[in-house]
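JOB MANIFEST
job_type = single_chain_structure
chain_count = 1
residues = 449
[input]
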Amino acid sequence: MSAEHLGEPATRTIAAWPGSQAAWRRARASLAGGVSTGLRASMPPHPLFFDRGAGSRLWDVDGNSYLDYVLGWGPIIVGHSHPAVVTAVGEQLHRGQTFGSGHALEYEVAERLCARVPGAQRVLWSNTGSEAVQVALRLARAHTGRHRFVKFEGHYHGWTDQVLVSYRNLAEDGRPALGSAGQHPGVLADVSVLPFNDSAAVAELLARPDSDIAAVLVEPVLCNTGVLPPAPGFLEDLRALCDRTGTVLVFDEVITGLRMASGGAAERYGVTPDLTVLAKALAGGFSLSAVTGRADIVQQVTSGVVHAGTYNGNPIALAAAAATLDLLGGPEVYPRLEAVTAQLAEGLRAAFARHGVTAAVHHVGPVLQVSPGVTEVRTVREVLAADWAFYNELVVQALRRGVFLLPGGRWYLSTEHSAADVTQTVAALDDALDALSRAGAVPVPATVV
């Protein structure tokens, strides 16, 4: 392996990012905020601009290399620029970019999803998770003749008006809260927001004759806010309650799908929803999403439910998906992802302990969460109460030592992250914590509201 791919020593320090700063100044003259999605503007100390990626690493426009735990905010499940994905996409490019009609990859990849995702009898192709969630809710309403839906505190189902409710802004009295300026307040009438892992609250709501609930929409593992697993029996309770009341159970597996197991969280926890939303890991970095599930619900797109999109079933994205599914098909893939992530979690816990820094570190599959200022996180409110100002300082110190992290404590791992990468990462974080300790920075103990 070349020295370039081995990277520089974990204790190296990057003083500044002049190329990224110049690029960001230029971008702000034409791009809103200088970024293509507002969330990227929150990356401390400022958005970086990258030139290329390979495997578990990125290189920025200043020539610095990083071990990448952002992974494009999740899609890069098989690493950057995997040769198999690049080859598949390159071959498809010579055949055509889009046809406005059918092609073999549409059904070939759909067949493979039906074979591996529990409950998947039919597939609808779309382009983003936000779009696919809207399709799932429309299908549920058409199937039940009802209009409202249940979501849970801290769960993220996309940026559209209908579902961007009570994500990070939780009302103290439990009422639904809008997530954005300009959002139509009328959407609050269509949603009931409940605490995650509270089966009794769901049962009480669904038992009401006037609840009008078409769907229960849930991240089976709450990856977007704290990587919180379902409590024992919670998903089973949702399944039983939805069966009893004729309500559609929708798993938002935008993050967990193809990541927590070959068949996603539904396979990992042994609970089959009526509909599953897939995206992120589905196409190895290309824009593709899907709604899968019961044939009688999904088939409604042929009998009155409108599901449209110029780029639906795009052959380039589906070529990438086929290659990604091949790479995720081996029996060793998911045990290895689990083992490498467990190694990282153990190393990070030890590093925090060495510096006397209170932090909770846990993972579910290859998604890891670090929450400073707390010893354990079990609820969304405990996650939100952690010391995120301290964590942002840690992100910058890690960045200076060649480790690229998301704000909010979530880390993604890919099939390309190795034990050696983990060793280097832990050494870099240990050095970053040392720098913060010498500067007198310590996390503030959490106060849960």
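[summary]
Residues 11 and 66 are 12 Å apart (CA to CA).
The chain has two domains: 3-77+331-438, 83-327.
exit_status = 0
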